[in-house]
Amino acid sequence: MTRLLTLAFAAMFLLDPRLAVAQDAQAGKRVFNKCSACHAVGPNAPNKIGPQLNGLFGRTAGSVEGYTYSPANKQSGITWTEETFANYIKDPRGAIKGTKMVFAGIRNEQEVRDLTAYLRSFAADGEPQ
C-alpha cells in the first residue's frame, strides 16, 4: 500500500509540474534574510539602504515615498509583477542598467518563487494578507 501511495504522488508531480514548484512563504522568509540588510517588510517597515518592500507587486519601480532611487530605476518603466521581479532579482544590475542596488542576485528558481510568496504576504501598509 505504501508503495502504491508513493507511486501515486510521484505520478501527480510528473503530470502536474506546478505541484513540484509551489511557492512557500515560510521558506521565502528564510530567503529574505539575504535581503534584510538593505530592505524591510512588515508593519512600520522603514526604508533602509534600499526601499521597504511592502506591497511590492503592482507597484511602479522607483515610487516608494521617502526613498532616493537611481535615475535608472525611476525611469525603468517597470511595474513589479512576479515575472519582472524574478528577472530583476536574478541579476539586478543586468535588469536595470545603472541601478544603485549592489547585490549579486538570487538565481535559484525555487528561492525566487519562495521569496515572491513571502513578499506577496505583505500589503502596502505592511500588514499580512
Automatic annotation (TrEMBL):
Residues 23-123 form the Cytochrome c domain. Residues 1-22 form the signal peptide. GO terms for molecular function: electron transfer activity; heme binding; metal ion binding. Keywords: Electron transport, Heme, Iron, Metal-binding, Signal, Transport. Pfam families: Cytochrom_C (PF00034). The keyword Heme applies. This is Cytochrome c family protein.
